[in-house]
Amino acid sequence: MSRPGNRPPSAAEQKLAASLAGAVDLSGLKSRAEAQRGASSQGRAPGQAEGSAASVATRIQVDESTFEQEVLVRSTQVPVIIELVSQRAPTALTGILAALADEANGTWVHATVDVDVAPGIAQALQARAVPSVFAIAGGRPIADFEGEQPEEAVRQWLEAVLRATEGKLSGPGPSPEDADAEEKADPELDAAEEALSEGDLATAEQRFAALVEARPGEHSLVEALRYVQAGRRVADETDNADDGPVLAAKRSADLMLVSGEYDSAFSVLTDAIKVNFGDDRQALRTRLLELLETLPADDPRVLAARRDLASALY
């Protein structure tokens, strides 16, 4: 049932494509797009609205597991102002610093540390009271103060910190989460997966083929391509009594593969190889090797099929 021209995929083709999209093991590649979409919220403090000025990670919460990346590494870009707090004794200083951080829009970062959750940070900073505030730049503390302060005093202290670090840091950049998400973003893969999810098997095959050519070391892309190719053949082919046993074997193998019956798909082709010769045998062998690429090379089903192929050939 070949699809003429550029007409939209049929309901049957869309159903098959949806089945393929769920069955193809993309080895976690789909999570890249999800990570990209979710990263904008990871750097926000609780209650921060998505898309607000603070969504550029002007406010963060830090504990001992994230201190190195969120404070020491980030402080090579902009000053990180650590505020030691306790949920048992909230203070107005937290709100003052949060508001000033939003106003600064990324020129410095307000990092809160709950001393009851991460006492090691307070100890490392040799803090004597809560609240205490420390300015970290270039991975080192450069200024601090203890106790509540009026907003104007805090503003002047921050201005002094910014003057002291002016020209000495690399400047505002993406947060570690945003940088990680940007690294994971993969528009070409997203486009291939989108075509597959929409039932456009021809476009999905074309885009996965381009990815395989561009990234020969990523076997998971080969797995996806071979699976999509089998699915497209299932969608495009029709039964014909005159096709002969070789085409019938190849069609049966495709059907079994897209149904998840890998062992049966491989066996159909291996059995056909045993009783055919010349060009027919070579065509069957080529198809079997392609279908074997729908699974990782070390999958037990692939290893068993390769042994069976060797026995059939020799």
UniProtKB/TrEMBL annotation:
Segments of this protein annotated with the region Disordered: 31-53, 166-194
SUPFAM superfamilies: Thioredoxin-like
Pfam families xrefs: TPR_20 (PF14561)
Protein name: Tetratricopeptide repeat protein
Organism: Dietzia aerolata
